[in-house]
Design brief:
The protein is α+β, with helices and mostly antiparallel strands. It contains nine helices and eleven strands. The protein has two domains: about 35-125, Alpha-Beta Plaits (2-Layer Sandwich); about 160-250 and about 265-335, Cytidine Deaminase, domain 2 (3-Layer(aba) Sandwich). It starts with 20 loop residues before the first strand and ends with a helix. It binds zinc ion. One of its GO terms (biological process) is tRNA processing. One of its GO terms (cellular component) is nucleus.
Length: about 350
């Protein structure tokens, strides 16, 4: 069969002209929250393990297991090499002028070997990404279980040139569909659904709201994929650019859905490329169709995959997927220029 890439003609452009960035969950993308704590210099290094043991007994910091109890002293030329976290300021709300004796009852922690306390800001949560970890560590050392995939993705380096070339080809197909829809008076939004293992476009669609208010480009594409599997409910015959490009039998799913049944389900293992960030309805349809990844070009004010909501990362939904933004962003942006 003729390679699909020959069917798509678009203005040539450089894969270096855009970067795909991941759209992470709120927890992964939020700022580092800090809370106040008392720390104190360890004057006698040999007392460190005893002090840590006794402080852990008195102030266990159970809610903050990510915090290291001891850090190397940051000040240059400091006479003491280590500092220890004594407690959160909220652990001793009655202490107005903190001294080591007011913070530590003498029968629980032997204070010899500890200097006078001072207030520090410490990270309130376990960092989830390298940028969060680097910011948090400036305040107080913390543990971090790095997800290398996320780290590389945040640097915009997850996809190699060959992968970017394929991604660009798919987005070009979505752009061509958007233009075809626009020529018929529709909103300029186009989408394609791709089997990334077979490197084939399954279905291509554009906004068809002239016919039906719910026929957004993503909904059109999902319906076309369902049609390719013997389902679907709409006819897009009036829109020649909306079509199934690969029959279901030609495009085996790469990952069977193991959640509810062993049968592949609509978009299991498939990627969606869409010129504009999907709305809530389309994002929920993508959840239900079990899409694997979504790539979009430009953000949208009502977008549900990063701008207004992050539906792809909702823990209380039964399916989550990766989202990347910025694919051919300039071309996608230009769609709305008359
Ligand atoms: Zn929509």
């Amino acid at each position: 069969m003729e390679p699909q890439r020959k069917r798509w003609k678009g203005s040539p452009c450089d894969t270096d002209s855009w970067i795909a960035y991941p759209v992470l969950s709120d927890e992964q993308s939020q700022d580092v929250e800090l809370i106040e704590a008392f720390a104190a210099p360890i004057l006698n290094k040999k007392e460190t393990s005893r002090l840590v043991r006794e402080l852990n007994g008195l102030y266990p910091l159970n809610e903050l297991p990510h915090l290291k109890r001891v850090r190397a002293c940051k000040k240059e030329g400091s006479p003491h090499p280590l500092e220890v976290l004594v407690c959160l300021t909220s652990d001793s709300p009655d202490v107005k002028v903190a001294s080591i004796n007011t913070l530590l009852p003498s029968d629980r922690v032997r204070c010899d070997g500890l200097g006078e306390p001072f207030v520090v800001k410490v990270p309130a949560r376990l960092p989830l990404t390298r940028p969060q970890f680097e910011l948090a560590s400036k305040h107080w050392p913390t543990s971090f279980h790095e997800d290398k995939h996320v780290t590389v993705a945040l640097r915009g380096e997850l996809f190699n040139p060959a992968q970017k070339a394929a991604m660009q080809m798919y987005m070009m197909a979505a752009l061509n569909a958007a233009k075809a829809g626009k020529d018929m008076g529709m909103e300029a939004v186009g989408a394609v659904i791709v089997n990334p293992v077979m490197e084939r476009i399954i279905a291509v669609g554009h906004d068809c709201r002239g016919e039906h208010p719910l026929h957004h480009a993503v909904m059109v594409c999902i319906d076309l994929v369902a049609q390719s599997q013997g389902g679907g409910c709409y006819s897009f015959d009036r829109y020649p650019a909306c079509q199934i490009l690969s029959p279901a039998s030609d495009t085996p799913h790469c990952k069977p859905d193991t959640e509810a049944s062993s049968q592949p389900y609509i978009c299991t293992g498939y990627d969606l490329y869409v010129t504009r960030e999907p709305c809530v309805m389309c994002a929920m349809a993508l959840v239900h169709s079990r899409v694997s990844r979504v790539f979009y070009g430009m953000a949208s004010a009502d977008g549900a995959l990063g701008t207004k909501f992050k539906i792809h990362s909702q823990r209380d939904l039964n399916h989550r997927f990766e989202v990347y933004r910025g694919i051919l962003s300039k071309h996608c942006d230009d769609l709305n220029i008359a």
